[in-house]
Design goal:
Number of helices: 8
Order of helices and strands: EHHEHEHHHEHHEE
Largest sheet: 6 strands, mixed
Structural class: alpha/beta
Radius of gyration: 16 Å
Shape: globular
CATH superfamily: Phosphoglycerate mutase-like
CATH class: Alpha Beta
Number of domains: 1
Strand order of the largest sheet: 3-2-4-1-5-6
Distance between the termini: 39 Å
CATH topology: Rossmann fold
CATH architecture: 3-Layer(aba) Sandwich
Length: 215
């Protein structure tokens, strides 16, 4: 069955999100608010006709996926390719700390948003490559017309850069438990973003959105 719609989901909130600290691959769990966000999302997601959920294997994503699975009625499929951007030496830092402690490297990031690999970590282009490889594999598996991908803010934005200009990307938020939906327009692999950073399922409760350092 051809995949016609992909639902991109960000995990619920963690204490590091609350403090503005970049998590990268750190095993940071959801906080109480993040688990509550995931439960709100689960009530919504069960009604969208999703037939498979692929998820990052990082702790905050696993916890979110498991909460969603309770309503979906099937187990998530965990995939390390859906991890957040590896930010190496900058893991656990705030944007101000990155700028103050690594001024030269931060300026290089500002100058080459997609191509610069942070110290000990990845570039956005590298993240995009692994995300697109995973995305294309899921299309080949064709587990249904609507599938879900639970990943992270920078990784989701890297994937979206396949279909968005840099200017559009800079203006795109990805809040905790946000839903971004892309739909297939034709059999040639043309995709269109039909909803971005949808948070209506949260019914007014707060969602953190930590932009990339160049925003």
């Amino acid at each position: 069955m051809t995949v016609k719609r992909v639902i991109l989901i960000r995990p619920g909130e963690t204490d590091w999100n609350r403090r503005g600290r970049w998590q990268g691959w750190a095993a940071v769990p959801l906080n109480t608010h993040g688990r509550n966000q995931a439960r709100y999302l689960a009530r919504f997601i069960r009604n969208v006709g999703m037939s498979a959920l692929y998820s990052s294997d990082l702790k905050r994503a696993v916890e979110t996926a498991e909460i969603l699975a309770e309503k979906l009625g099937f187990k998530p499929i965990f995939d390390a390719r859906l991890r957040e951007r590896n930010i190496g030496d900058w893991q656990g830092l705030t944007q101000d700390e990155m700028r103050d402690w690594y001024p030269d490297e931060f300026q290089q990031l500002m100058s080459d948003r997609a191509g610069y690999a942070v110290p000990g970590g990845e570039s956005r282009n590298q993240v995009k490559t692994r995300m697109m490889t995973a995305f294309n594999d899921y299309l080949k598996e064709a587990k249904g017309e609507t599938i879900g991908i639970l990943s992270h803010s920078s990784a989701i934005r890297a994937l979206l850069s396949q279909w968005m200009s840099e200017e559009q990307l800079v203006g795109t938020d990805v809040g905790n438990t946000s839903v971004t939906t892309i739909a297939r327009e034709d059999e040639n692999g043309t995709w269109r973003i039909i909803a971005s950073n949808d948070l209506l399922h949260l019914e007014g409760i707060e969602s953190q959105s930590l932009g990339e350092p160049d925003r």
